[in-house]
Structure formats: structure tokens, C-alpha cells
Design goal:
two-stranded antiparallel ribbon; three-stranded antiparallel sheet; 5 strands; mainly beta; about 70 residues
């Protein structure tokens, strides 16, 4: 079984102004799928960080349509 832990750290930094980062700890694990080819296994992320992100604090008017994901 494959297991590897890492940090997923998407962020935004504005030169000489500010930066913001949302950090999640994840582990990479094996995962089978009903769509697998010849029963091969795939890799997926399992969340280790159990602190929820308050999405109501995100100002969606500042995002493009491509950046908004529900």
C-alpha cells in the first residue's frame, strides 16, 4: 500500500502588499475505482486536517467564473 503525507498549500501573494494561504495536510493513498482499467489502483488524497474552512468569508465578487467552484 502506498502512503505519503504532504501539505497542500494553495495561496495568493500580492507584491509588497499581502499574502494568504490555506494549508491542508493530506495523505496520498491507493484507491480502486469502478472505472479502473484491468482493476488497476489509482492514487487519491485523504484529508488529515479536520479544521473546516469558513467559505462565507470568501468574497466571490473578486473571483472569476473559472475560480468559483461549488
Amino acid at each position: 500500500m502506498y502512503k505519503h503525507d504532504l501539505n497542500h498549500e494553495p495561496g495568493f501573494y500580492s507584491d509588497d502588499k499581502f499574502g494568504i494561504r490555506i494549508e491542508n495536510c493530506v495523505i496520498v493513498i491507493n484507491k480502486s475505482s469502478k472505472y479502473g482499467y484491468y482493476n488497476e489502483e489509482w492514487l487519491t488524497f485523504e484529508q488529515l486536517t479536520m479544521v473546516p474552512i469558513q467559505r462565507k468569508l470568501i468574497d466571490r465578487s473578486l473571483l472569476t467564473n473559472d475560480e468559483v467552484c461549488i
